[in-house]
Write a structure and sequence with these properties.
Elements lengths: L12 E5 L3 H12 L3 E5 L5 H19 L12 E3 L3 H7 L2 E4 L5 H14 L6 E3 L6 H4 L9 E6 L8 E6 L5 H13 L3 E4 L9 H17 L5 H16 L4 H7 L5 H19 L7 H15 L4 H21 L14
Parallel strand pairs: 1-2, 1-4, 2-3, 4-5, 5-6, 7-8
Antiparallel strand pairs: 6-7
Helix pairs in contact: 1-2, 3-4, 7-11
Bound molecules: nicotinamide-adenine-dinucleotide.
């Protein structure tokens, strides 16, 4: 039977549509994985942004991965002057333009009109379900959501899901592509606004803002609750396993048997804040205090440096039931 898509072994040049924070981070990871990068962004400053991001990411990538060259192979990066030229020069595209539905749809359909139909178009969108992205594509079967986490060259997770008209083979291929990049892809079984991880993230963010605006605790203490409580466990176990362990040897069945009604009562008591000017003022004030006068750039650098140590720790201390490495399944 004829192959529907270009095999990954034949993918050399990966096209980046949009080189903001996320596109530039993909560029670093792609170069470290041996790919050539073709890039297009409507903003001329993207050229310097990619260069600076790759150079800043390189020591990080070298410390996390083996076989990374001493210096970034910038000669493998080529900027082109249109989306059509990008599609013409790429074996696979990762789209990373601004998170606005109409912009993304226009970009996807222009790429789709030129890129041969056997090549994947992957989207980094943090919230748009892929069915909405593929709506105006003539070859929607190759459109797949591949949502990374920032910075994409540090955080392993990528959420992968197809839209209503995506071929399952395209989703399989996207999973394999990300595994080849050293990512930890997860395959969602259903598309939703916000996918999976942003739904989880925004659920806790909503309650954090609710508690802040209701005066339950200071911004500092709300973050301490995660940094010194919940987050410590979450670096090892997810919320469902954490809930299971709350039941001791009886596990989740015991927690539900004892606390079924309480759990539902607590859910019912969760806040549904709106971002009114008053709520925003409390949020801005709280976060200003949290920053302690240190710039966001400095906070970001500190976070990324510490994440590297955490990832090294995780590599030496695998999860009790580590699933098979997806890279070995391809
Ligand atoms: N920032 C994050 O933490 C994060 C994490 C994961 C995924 N994402 C997703 O990645 C995407 C990009 O996010 P970002 O944070 O890099 O945004 P960004 O604003 O930093 O970058 C967007 C880039 O797209 C370019 N662009 C806009 N319209 C374009 C067009 N028509 N053609 C070509 N280039 C165009 C802009 O010039 C800009 O460089 C979004 O879909 C976002 O949801 C963001």
């Amino acid at each position: 039977m004829a192959r529907e898509f270009l095999p990954l072994e034949a993918v050399r040049g990966v096209g980046l549509a949009g080189v903001g924070a996320v596109g530039a981070a993909w560029a670093a990871l792609l170069l470290a994985s041996g790919y050539e990068v073709v890039a297009y962004d409507q903003d001329p400053a993207a050229v310097d942004r990619l260069d600076a991001t790759v150079r800043a990411a390189w020591p990080v990538l070298s410390s996390l991965r083996s076989g990374v060259p001493d210096s970034p192979p910038m000669e493998k990066v080529r900027f082109v002057s249109s989306l059509e030229a990008l599609a013409d020069a790429s074996d696979l595209i990762q789209e990373n333009v601004a998170e606005a539905l109409e912009t993304k749809r226009a970009v996807m359909s222009r790429i789709d009109a030129v890129l041969p139909p056997d090549r994947l178009i992957l989207s980094s969108s943090g919230g748009v379900p892929p069915s909405q992205l593929q709506e105006f594509c003539r070859h929607p079967k190759r459109v797949v959501l591949g949502h990374p986490f920032h910075p994409a060259y540090v955080i392993p997770l990528v959420e992968v899901v197809g839209g209503r008209r995506t071929s399952p083979e395209a989703v399989d291929l996207a999973m394999s592509f990300y595994a080849r990049l050293g990512k930890r892809p997860i395959r969602l079984q259903k598309e939703m606004v916000g996918h999976l991880t942003n739904r989880l993230q925004f659920a806790i963010l909503r309650e954090a803002i609710h508690c802040l605006s209701e005066g339950v605790a200071s911004a500092d203490d709300i973050d301490v609750a995660v940094r010194w409580g919940l987050g410590l466990r979450w670096a090892l176990l997810g919320p469902l396993m954490t809930f299971n362990l709350a039941g001791g040897s009886g596990g989740v069945e015991q927690v539900i048997a004892r606390f079924h009604d309480d759990v539902e009562k607590w859910w019912d008591a969760l806040g549904v804040p709106r971002l009114t000017p008053e709520v925003c003022a409390k949020l801005y004030d709280g976060v200003r205090q949290l920053r302690h006068g240190i710039s966001n750039e400095k906070w970001g650098q500190w976070r990324d440096a510490e994440l590297i140590e955490l990832l090294k720790y995780r590599a030496l201390h695998p999860y009790l039931a580590e699933p098979p490495d997806p890279a070995r399944e391809t």
